[in-house]
Amino acid sequence: MEDKYISPFLEALKNVIGQFGVTDIHFGKPERKETMHVDTDITAVLGLVGNVRGNVAYSMSSETAKKTVSAMMYGMPVEEIDSIARSAIGEMANMITGNAISSSLSLLLSGEKITFDITPPSIIFGKDIYFIISSIETVSVPVDTSIGRIEVNIGLEM
Amino acid sequence: MDMRMTVPFVEALQDIFKQMAMIEAQTDGEPFTDNEEVHSYGVSSIITFAGKIKGRFLIDLDTQVALQAAKNITGSSYDSPKEQMVLAVVSEMNNIISGNAITKLNNEYGLSLRLAPPIVFAGTDVIISIPKVASASVTCTTAYGKLKASVAISKA
């Protein structure tokens, strides 16, 4: 997977969480790996099918998740990650991925009409989790923001 | 959710576990509506799909079942479900199981479903949640422990 396929997801993340009022968004250095180890609490993962095929996972601590959900709900305090909060995190993953594909990624693949579907997000909680989200490779980018770190993991097959 | 959707998955799961891993999985009973939160047994693999409907298929294995399947397939022993080869085996099994099941569903109901690549993970105290979508699960018993097959369908 080439680097140019990664930046649409990062730009989309910046756009989407920027709209919720999150600031100080800095992208870290991309890292390539086969297995992804997550030591934060929450991972939202969704799939893409079509002529872009793969999985994208967004990991964050529960503190960051609460702040994200709170920002999405205009500052309403969020005490725990309940079903509404989970739904909000899934929705955020949907928005970022949809945004990335429809805006920038389609330009990169110009000449080729992009047809794709985003599959429903799954939210995974737990500690010290080892993931494989792609049989080829996974590119993981840490993103530091005013509400904490969000790790973007991208495994596309193309 | 229509409980009939679980049938091709559970059949494929039993077939593939028997053929590939030489593990007999006996279903414990009828499919039941599962919680929005699923507590992982040890090693879990998710495949999502989209077409005229969207959804996800989850197989959830006791750690011992995953280790035994990896041993039977690769011929080597493993200590931890977090080893890459164990995860890769579970992921590939799910890929084959879901491929079989999706083909049946497409042929029977014309759903034009396509699969995303499998996700597999193992960790401590893992909870899997798929917001706003009801799921139907079937638990199975094997000689090495329990496994669960769970199907969740949402309208596209």
UniProtKB/TrEMBL annotation, chain A:
Annotated transmembrane regions: none
UniProt keyword terms in alphabetical order: Chemotaxis
Gene3D superfamilies: CheC-like
Keyword Metal-binding part of the UniProt annotation: no
A Pfam family it matches: CheX
InterPro entries, alphabetized: CheC-like_sf, CheX-like, CheX-like_dom
Taxonomy, superkingdom: Bacteria
Keyword field contains Acetylation: no
Domain Chemotaxis phosphatase CheX-like span(s) in chain numbering: 42-129
CDD domains: CheX
Protein name: Chemotaxis protein CheX
Organism: Heliobacterium chlorum
From TrEMBL, chain B:
Gene3D superfamilies tied to this protein: CheC-like
This protein's record includes keyword Secreted: no
Keywords from the named record: Chemotaxis
InterPro entries (UniProt xref): CheC-like_sf, CheX-like, CheX-like_dom
Boundaries of every Chemotaxis phosphatase CheX-like domain copy: 43-132
Pfam family, one: CheX
Protein name: Chemotaxis protein CheX
Source organism of the structure: Heliobacterium chlorum
